[in-house]
Write a structure and sequence with these properties.
Number of strands: 28
Radius of gyration: 28 Å
Helix content: 25-40%
Largest sheet: 7 strands, mixed
Shape: globular
Oligomer: single chain
Strand order of the largest sheet: 11-12-9-19-16-17-18
Length: 745
C-alpha cells in the first residue's frame, strides 16, 4: 500500500514493555479497520501488517530515546522531528537521545528526504505520539496514587499530583504505563502552542559535535571487517556500453584484487549502467589502477548531442507555435496587439549538477544470497527495490543501514550508485566500499534540466499587465513526455493573475539524465518569470515592488473547465504572498535608500513546496564588470510554527547561498554526449568571501507549518539579476552570470 492509501486509515498507538521496566511507543496505521484498540488490532497479525511512524523508548533512568526515521541530509530533520515528540511528551531535551532508524518499511512510513515534506507530513502525527505517551504516563501515575487524572500535571519528565505535591518521574512510571490502554491518537489532547517548551527554541543539531570532531557518521566513513575498495568506470557518454577492456593489465596493478565488467549492456540512466569495476586493497590503489584502464565503448546515439545543438534546435522551434498547449485564457494575440507597450525576450538557463560535498558511495556485502548495505540515500526504499530487481533477489533479503548524508539536494533520490555497489559486491564475493571521485559525481549526475523560454508580454496605458505568452522549449527522453524535472505547469504564476495568458511547450528528444535539484523546476522558472515581470514593470514605468503587489491583487476568476476536464488553477494564496512581499520591502527599506552608481536592488517572490518567500538582493557591479552581492533580505511564510529557529534560519540562508552560487558560475555543458565540466575548478561552489550577509525573517501565520529546505531558493536568482539591471542597465536573460559582460559606462 502506498502512502496515499495509508493516510485514509485509522491511526493508533502500539505499546510494548521492554526489558528492565521501560516502555516503547509506536504510532501505527491500521490497514484493516474495526479494531477497538492497539492490542485488538495487532492480535493474530504480523508486524508487516502495520506501519509505525515514530518510536519513543523510556527507560527507568528517565532517558527518552526517540528514533529518527527519515534520512538526515543536512536539513536538520534528525533534530527537528524528535523535538516535536519531546515537547508533547513534556520531557527535558537534555534527557533525550536520538537514534537513526535503519530502513524498515514494515515499521516506518515515508523514510525519504525530499520536497520539503518532513514537517507538513509529520507535524501532527509526531505531536500525537508525544501527547499520547504523556497521557499514558499521567494515567499510570493517577492509578498509582488512586487519584483523578485531572489532578495530575507534567513537567520536565515528572508527573506531579497537585494537591499532595507527590511526584513520580517518567522512568519510575514507564513499566506501569506499558500496561495502560493507549488513547486514540486522533482524540488525544495536544498542548496549546503557548505552552511549548522545546518547539520554537534554538536547538543545536544532535550530530553537531560528532561532525566537528570527525566521528564516523557519513556513508564515506563506513568500514566493515574484510572490506575492500572499488571504483567504477562508466562510459563518459550517457548510456554507452562496454565493448572491451584491458582487464588483465589492470589486475596486475599494485593492490588490485579484481577487475571485471559489470552489466556490459546496461543503458538504463536511472539504473545499472554498463562499466568496469576495479576492486583493490584500498581506494587510492584502485583509483591509480583506473588511470591505466583502457575501455572501448559503444557510445550510442547520445554521442551526437550537445548544448550547442540543443540551443539551435530551441531557436528553430521557437519560430513556430508550441507543439502542445498548457493553458489559454482570454485572447492573448488581440491583447498584445492592443497593448500600449510590449516586451519580447528569450530566456535560457543551463544544466546544473548537484555537486554534494560527499561524493556518491555505498558499502555492500553480499553473502549467502543476502545483501547488507550502508547507504547515504534520500530514498533508501526506492534504492532497495532497484537493487532487488537488478540482482534478482527479494527485497526481504536486503538490509539497508541509513547513514548521514553529506549533501543531497535531490541527487540522492536516484540510487544508481547503490545498485552499482550491490552488483560489484555480488560479483566480488567480498564486502566492498564503492566510492566515486569528484569527477564521477559531476560527470554522471542527474542534472537540473536546461530550458528555453520565449516570452512576450504587454501592458496597457495605465501600466497594467494585460497579456503574457510563453513558448517553453524543454526536453524529453521518449519524445512525448517531459524529462524528469523538465516540466512547466499550466498553473505556474502568473497564470490566473493576467486576463490574457497562454503557455505552451515543445520538446527536444535527448539522452541526458535529469533529475530533481533543490526546489526542482522552481529554481529555474522563478528566474524566468520574475525577471520578465521586472522587464514589464520597467516598460510600464512602475516600481518593481508595486508592480508585483498590483499583479498579486489581480486574481482572475477561474474559467469554466472544458467538458470532462478538471478546472485549472494554482494553489498560490495571493494574500499570503502579498504579506511576505510587503514585509521584505519594509525590512530592506525598499525605495527609501539612495544607492551609489553601480549599486542596485532587486526584488522577487516565488511560491513552491507550500512555502511563500519574497527576497531583496543588493548588489554592486564595478565599471569593469566585477560583481559583489552586498546583502540579501529573506522573508518567508511557512505557517504557524517555526519548530527550530536556528535550523530554520540555517535552511533559508543556505538556500539563498545555493541560489547565488547557481547564478554566478554553475553550468554543465554537453559536448558529444558527455559533460564537459569535471570538478570545482570548472563547476564552482560559492566561496566564503563571496557569501553576503543574509537577513532572515519568518512571517508567522495561522496555517499549518510547512518545510523550507527548498522554497527560499528560487526568488534569490531573479532578485540578483534585477539588482544587476538597476546597477548597470544590463538585462540578464541567460545564466550563468560568469558568461555575461557586466561592464557599464
Amino acid at each position: 500500500m502506498d502512502t496515499t492509501t495509508r493516510v485514509d486509515r485509522r491511526s493508533f498507538l502500539r505499546v510494548s514493555a521492554i526489558a528492565g521496566g521501560g516502555i516503547m511507543l509506536g504510532s501505527y496505521l491500521d490497514f484493516f479497520g474495526g479494531a477497538t484498540d492497539a492490542f485488538a488490532a495487532t492480535a493474530g497479525t504480523g508486524a508487516a501488517d502495520f506501519a509505525p511512524n515514530a518510536f519513543i523508548r523510556i527507560t527507568p533512568d528517565g532517558i527518552v530515546t526517540i528514533i529518527a526515521k527519515n534520512p538526515e541530509i543536512g536539513q536538520g530533520v534528525k533534530t527537528m522531528l524528535p523535538m516535536i515528540i519531546a515537547d508533547e511528551l513534556d520531557v527535558e531535551w537534555k534527557n533525550v537521545r536520538i537514534e537513526q532508524a535503519p530502513l524498515d518499511t514494515t515499521k516506518f512510513q515515508g523514510q525519504s528526504a525530499g520536497g520539503s515534506t518532513a514537517t507538513p507530513t509529520n507535524w501532527l502525527p509526531m505531536r500525537r505520539v508525544g501527547a499520547a505517551g504523556r497521557a499514558m504516563l499521567v494515567t499510570a501515575a493517577a492509578q498509582t496514587w488512586n487519584v483523578g487524572e485531572s489532578e495530575c500535571e507534567t513537567s520536565a519528565g515528572v508527573v506531579t499530583h497537585k494537591a499532595s505535591n507527590r511526584k513520580l518521574t517518567y522512568g519510575e512510571l514507564a513499566a506501569k504505563a506499558a500496561t495502560v490502554t493507549p488513547p486514540a491518537l486522533d482524540a488525544v489532547k495536544l498542548k496549546d502552542p503557548k505552552d511549548f517548551k522545546i518547539i520554537g527554541t534554538r536547538v543545536s543539531g544532535v550530530d553537531n559535535h560528532a561532525i566537528v570532531t570527525g566521528k564516523p557518521l557519513y556513508g564515506i566513513d563506513v568500514t566493515v571487517p574484510g572490506m575492500m575498495y572499488a571504483v567504477y568506470e562508466k562510459c563518459p557518454v550517457f548510456g554507452g556500453k562496454v565493448v572491451s577492456a584491458n582487464l588483465d593489465e589492470i589486475k596486475a596493478q599494485p593492490g588490485v584484487k579484481q577487475a571485471f565488467v559489470v552489466a556490459p549492456g546496461g543503458t538504463q540512466l536511472a539504473g545499472l549502467l554498463g562499466g568496469v569495476a576495479i576492486v583493490a586493497d584500498n581506494w587510492w590503489l584502485a583509483k591509480n589502477a583506473r588511470t591505466k584502464l583502457k575501455v572501448v565503448w559503444d557510445e550510442g546515439a547520445t554521442a551526437t548531442q550537445s548544448s550547442a545543438g540543443f540551443a539551435a534546435k530551441a531557436a528553430e522551434l521557437s519560430k513556430g507555435a508550441p507543439a502542445k498547449n498548457l493553458r489559454n485564457d482570454g485572447d492573448v494575440d488581440a491583447a498584445l496587439a492592443g497593448a500600449a507597450k510590449t516586451v519580447e525576450a528569450a530566456y535560457y538557463y543551463p544544466f546544473i549538477a548537484h555537486a554534494p560535498l560527499e561524493p556518491q558511495n555505498t558499502t555492500a556485502h553480499f553473502k549467502d544470497g543476502k545483501l547488507e548495505m550502508w547507504v547515504p540515500s534520500q530514498s533508501p526504499a526506492g534504492g532497495r527495490a532497484l537493487v532487488a530487481k537488478t540482482l534478482g533477489i527479494p527485497e526481504t533479503d536486503i538490509t539497508v543501514h541509513m547513514t548521514r548524508v553529506g549533501g543531497g539536494f535531490g541527487r540522492r533520490l536516484n540510487n544508481d550508485y547503490m545498485v552499482e555497489a550491490a552488483a560489484i559486491a555480488k560479483q566480488a564475493g567480498v564486502p566492498v566500499k564503492m566510492l566515486w571521485t569528484r569527477e564521477d559525481d559531476i560527470q554522471h549526475d542527474f542534472y537540473r534540466p536546461a530550458g528555453f523560454h520565449y516570452l512576450k508580454g504587454g501592458v496597457d496605458a495605465s501600466g497594467k499587465l494585460v497579456a503574457w505568452k510563453n513558448h517553453f522549449v524543454s526536453f524529453s527522453i521518449d519524445g512525448e513526455q517531459f524529462a524528469p524535472s523538465a516540466n512547466l505547469s499550466g498553473t505556474e504564476f502568473p497564470a490566473r493573475f493576467i486576463p490574457n495568458f497562454s503557455a505552451g511547450y515543445s520538446l527536444i528528444p535527448f539522452g541526458i539524465p535529469t533529475g530533481f535539484l533543490r526546489a526542482p523546476g522552481s529554481n529555474a522558472i522563478a528566474f524566468v518569470t520574475q525577471s520578465f515581470i521586472d522587464e514589464l514593470a520597467n516598460a510600464a514605468g512602475k516600481d518593481p515592488y508595486q508592480f508585483r503587489m498590483d499583479l498579486l491583487a489581480n486574481l482572475q476568476p477561474a474559467p469554466a473547465p472544458a467538458a470532462g476536464a478538471p478546472q485549472q488553477g494554482g494553489s498560490l494564496d495571493a494574500a499570503r504572498m502579498r504579506a511576505v512581499l510587503q514585509l521584505v520591502a519594509e525590512r530592506a527599506n525598499w525605495g527609501r535608500v539612495t544607492l551609489p552608481k553601480g549599486t542596485g536592488r532587486g526584488i522577487a517572490f516565488h511560491f513552491s513546496h507550500r512555502g511563500y518567500f519574497a527576497e531583496v538582493v543588493q548588489a554592486t557591479v564595478s565599471k569593469d564588470g566585477d560583481l559583489k552581492v552586498d546583502k540579501v533580505w529573506v522573508v518567508g511564510d511557512i505557517g504557524s510554527q517555526i519548530i527550530n529557529p536556528s535550523n530554520a534560519e540555517n535552511q533559508a540562508q543556505g538556500a539563498a547561498l545555493d541560489g547565488i552560487a547557481e547564478a554566478l558560475g554553475q553550468e554543465i555543458t554537453i559536448e558529444k554526449g558527455r559533460a564537459v565540466q569535471s570538478n570545482f575548478n570548472t563547476f564552482p561552489l560559492l566561496r566564503m568571501r563571496e557569501a553576503p550577509p543574509i537577513d532572515v525573517h519568518f512571517h508567522v501565520t495561522e496555517f499549518p507549518p510547512t518545510g523550507l529546505g527548498e522554497p527560499a531558493l528560487p526568488p534569490v536568482v531573479p532578485a540578483l539579476c534585477s539588482a544587476i539591471f538597476q546597477a548597470t542597465g544590463k538585462r540578464v536573460r541567460s545564466l550563468p552570470l560568469s558568461k555575461t559582460d557586466l561592464k557599464w559606462v
